[in-house]
Amino acid sequence: MMKRILGFLDKTIDFFIVLMLVGIVVTITLQVAFRYIFQISAPWTEEVARFMFIYLTYIGAALAIREKSHIAIDILVERLPRMLRAAVHIIVQLAIIFFLSILLKGSWIMVESSTDVSSATMRWLSMSYVYLALFLGSVLMIFYSVLRVIEVIKETFFTSNNSLNDSSSSTVSKS
Questions:
Q1: Annotated domain spans of the chain
Q2: Helix, strand or coil, per DSSP, at residue 172
Q3: Other Cβ atoms within 10 Å of 136 Cβ, number
Q4: What distance in Å separates the CA atoms of residue 10 and residue 54, rounded to the nearest whole number?
Q5: Residues 98-156: pLDDT tens digits?
Q6: Handedness of CA 22, 19, 105, 141 (dihedral sign)
Q7: What is the mean pLDDT of residues 18-34?
Q8: Which terminal Cβ of the chain has fewer Cβ within 10 Å, N or C?
Q9: pLDDT digit string (tens) for 74-84?
Q10: 21-41 mean pLDDT
Q11: Are 125 and 119 in contact (CB under 8 A)?
Q12: In this structure, are residues 135 and 61 in contact, taking their beta carbons and an 8 Å threshold?
């Protein structure tokens, strides 16, 4: 059941990332067409593209945590014994969760405090929807960091293989 829920969440995030990327391309293309073909200024296109990029960034950061594709220099960590290496991975993930919790709280304050503030070019759009990207991204990043802690614990204590990281020979790898 949990794998099914995680699979659905992963596919939803992947779809959302693709949707934002396509939306940015379409919006910027519209902006260029309006400006150079129709000689019309459409300031909302730049703002929509920016807002989609904000969502792409924060949800994409969660995707990077899920895929373990954030940059990490782990040359020293990979030389540690298995148990110590696992402890370092867990401490790093707990530190990430701590800082993301602070970000989560601050982003929720921004969402709540900006309900009456509207976008500059789209008066109907509350800025709280834009700040919601940071909140949602933080929630997803915390979720995937917790899953990473559980994964490290399972790999360390409940399996016999030594697979805390995908590659142990490189100096820069996924963490």
A1: 2-174
A2: strand
A3: 18
A4: 19
A5: 999 999 999 999 999 988 888 888 888 889 999 999 999 999 999 999 999 999 999 98
A6: negative
A7: 95
A8: N
A9: 888 889 898 99
A10: 93
A11: yes
A12: no
Distances in Å between the Cα of 138 and the Cα atoms of 117, 119, 144 are: 22, 23, 10
Q: Are 141 and 100 in contact (CB under 8 A)?
A: yes
Cβ pair 17, 63 in contact under 8 A: yes
Q: In a 3-state reduction of DSSP, which class is residue 143?
A: helix
Residue type, 8: F
Residue showing tokens 């933080």: 138
Is there a contact between 74 and 92 (Cβ–Cβ < 8 Å)? no
Place of tokens 């934002």: 20
pTM beyond 0.70, yes or no: yes
Q: d(Cα 13, Cα 59) in Å, to the nearest integer?
A: 7
